[in-house]
Amino acid sequence: MSDKQRKCLTKIGWQVSVFCASLLLSGSVLADGSLCVFTRGQPQNPLANLEAPTAAAIKDVADVMTYLGYDTRIQIFAGPVANAAAYPPQGGRDGFIVYNPDFLTRLFDINDWAATSVIAHEIGHHLAIDANHPNSHRRELAADEISGCAMARMGATLEDATAAMLRGLPTNSGSPTHPGTSERINAIETAYNRCQSE
Ligand SMILES: [Zn+2]
User: Ligand 1 centroid vs 194 CA: distance in angstroms?
Assistant: First the structure.
């Protein structure tokens, strides 16, 4: 781990102290078995229909982990989720992420960073101590903050870091599980600015 990575890790350390095992604690897994979905919408039996990820998706996971300073193993699969979702270790797998290929393709049409920022959000669910945020909205904002930090570290612009939220999804005022668009954008921006200024 480089000094720069260590510094980033320290800065977001309030969100992070243990890894995927913590995600198995009761209360941190949604009814569908996932830790989160990127936004509203329920997956349809996604774990029975996992497919190989694209090379770009694998590289995104590796790059985000490197820039955040982690070597925790997180797998990624394509599957029939609404958009993207994080799952705790199960069935002999490490903690993993499932993405909807059509959703990610739409994000790639926006710009090169939009899909990466969504994958970084899902990684954020694995790295944050979700059990320390019993409120679902807080868990989502913690994952958004980790995504914003990763985008800053990786060299994205602030516009890139928020493109998926502003241009890839309909603007909304929130749901029982997810904060509204403006609150999520604010979380991304705050973390982006903090991590960029280090
Ligand atoms: Zn989420």
Answer: 21
Domain count, the chain: 1
Question: What pLDDT score does 47 carry?
Answer: 76
> Is-contact 72 127, C-beta < 8 A?
yes
Measure 2 CA to ligand 1 centroid, in angstroms. 28
Q: Sheet of 96-99: strands edge to edge?
A: 36-37, 84-87, 96-99, 75-78
Instruction: Report CA(129)–ligand 1 centroid distance (Å).
Output: 13
* pLDDT tens per residue across span 62-111: 999 999 998 888 999 999 888 999 988 887 888 899 999 999 999 989 99
> How far apart are the CA of 122 and the centre of ligand 1, in A?
6
Please tell me the distance between residue 140's alpha carbon and the centre of ligand 1 in angstroms: 5
Q: What is the pLDDT of residue 134?
A: 74
- 114-118 mean pLDDT: 96
Structural domain containing residue 37: 3-196
State how far the Cα of 39 lies from the Cα of 42, in Å rounded to an integer: 9
Give distance in angstroms: CA of 138 to centre of ligand 1: 10
What's the confidence (pLDDT) of residue 71? 84
Predicted TM-score (pTM) of the model is 0.79
